[in-house]
Amino acid sequence: MSPDPAALQDLIDREAIRQLITTYCNAADRHDHVKMRSLYHEDAIDEHGHMSKGPAMDFIDKLPEIQAPMEILHHNVTTINIALDGDRAEGEVYLIALHRVKGADGPFDVLVGGRYFDKYERRDGRWKFAHRAIVADWANIHSPSIVDLEHPFLHGAYIGKPGPEDPSYAFFGLLGRGA
After folding, report:
1. Which residue range(s) make up the domain with 139?
2. Within a 13 Å sphere around the CA of 164, how many CA atoms are in the beta-carbon half?
3. Pairing mode, if any, of strands 126-142 and 88-103?
4. Residue 89 domain-assigned?
5. Could you tell me if residue 177 is inside a domain?
6. Which of 73, 35, 34 is nearest to 51 (CA)?
7. Would residue 152 count as lying in a domain?
8. Longest pairwise C-alpha distance within the chain
9. CA distances from 18 to 11, 13, 23 (A)
10. Going residue by residue through the chain (179 aa), what tens digit of pLDDT does each one get?
11. Is residue 71 included in any domain, yes or no?
C-alpha cells in the first residue's frame, strides 16, 4: 500500500510548523534575535501584551531592551493544536514560561501559563509566523526569586545562560546555535 500523498503532505506541514514553534522557544530563551527574526514573515504581527502590539520586526528590534533584565527565560510548549488550509494554518499552542527578572529589590520570578494564538503562512516553500498573540491563563509570581542555581544538587551540571555563553553553543554542532 503506497502512502496517501495528501496525508504525507499534512504530516510534513505539521512537523514544519512544530519545528517553527520550538525554534521560537530556543531563540527567545537564548536571546537570539537573528534567529527570532528568521521565524517571522517581514509583514508579520506580534501581540506580546504591553511589550508589543504591531509589526513583529518592531517587537524583535525591542527585544534586547526587553530581555536585558531577564536572567532566565525558559519557554516550554505542551499541547499544540494545528489546523491546515493549503498555505495557511492556525495554531493554539499551550506554554509554560519561566522568567527570572532583575528587579530594583533583587531578582523575582514570573511563571506564566498561557497560550499562543498563531497564524502561519507558507511562502516560498517555508512556514513562518504571520501573526502571533500571547494569551495569559495564569501567572505565579515569586518575589524574591526562588530559583537557586547554587544548590549542591546542581553541582557539576551545565548551567544555562542567555546568548552564546549558553553551554549548548559549545556542545551542539547540528542544531545551528546562533544561526
Report:
1. 5-171
2. 6
3. unpaired
4. yes
5. no
6. 73
7. yes
8. 65
9. 10, 9, 8
10. 788 999 999 999 999 999 999 999 999 999 999 999 999 999 999 999 999 999 999 999 999 999 999 999 999 999 999 999 999 999 999 999 999 999 999 999 999 999 999 999 999 999 999 999 999 999 999 999 999 999 999 999 999 988 888 898 888 888 766 55
11. yes
C-alpha cell at 179: 544561526
Q: Which residues of 37-62 are buried (b: 16+ CB within 10 A; e: fewer)?
A: eebbbeebbbbbeeebeeebeebbee
Helix (H, G, I), strand (E, B) or coil at 165: helix
What's the total number of domains in the chain? 1
Instruction: Decide: 108 and 142 in contact? Cβ < 8 Å.
Output: yes
Q: What is the arrangement of strands in the sheet containing 106-123, beginning at the earlier edge strand?
A: 53-55, 40-47, 126-142, 106-123, 88-103, 70-85
Backbone angles phi, psi at 67, to 5 degrees: -85, -10
Task: Let me know how long the chain is.
Answer: 179
Q: What CATH number does residue 104 fall under?
A: 3.10.450.50
Q: Which three cell numbers stand for residue 10?
A: 499534512
